[in-house]
Automatic annotation (TrEMBL):
It comes from Desulfonema ishimotonii. It comes from the Bacteria. This is Uncharacterized protein.
Length: 120
């Protein structure tokens, strides 16, 4: 069952390597069993780094702020390319150097909604 839905529009974050202030939209769905579904979307008015390049900074900020453990997190990115909505589920795996690395899998809008409905 869903415990809380938090909308942060815009969600402002700092991409430290380039000292760029960036913006995206974030929908955070927190559930009673400590799981979370987070959907971040690029904004047309963002003059900074996009969500694909900033995923590690954004996800760490959201997890730290809301006490979400990585193993309980379902992360979805939504952006527009050539006028088409693109949705990807992101898993955070460890690369050969032992660093966290995002691995993306395409999903459709219905699958995103199903994740929220099923969890709730």
């Amino acid at each position: 069952m869903q415990k809380k839905h938090i909308e942060i529009k815009p969600f402002t974050w700092l991409y430290a390597p380039l000292s760029l202030v960036s913006r995206c939209d974030a929908d955070i769905h927190l559930f009673e069993d400590d799981r979370a579904v987070v959907i971040v979307s690029d904004r047309e008015d963002n003059l900074g780094i996009g969500i694909r390049d900033g995923v590690m900074t954004i996800s760490r900020t959201v997890m730290d702020k809301h006490g979400i453990r990585p193993e309980h997190l379902t992360w979805i990115e939504t952006r527009t390319e050539a006028g088409e909505a693109i949705h990807e589920q992101v898993r955070f795996e460890t690369d050969a150097a032992g660093q966290p690395a995002p691995v993306r899998t395409p999903v459709d809008a219905a699958a995103v909604q199903a994740l929220i409905d099923r969890a709730g």
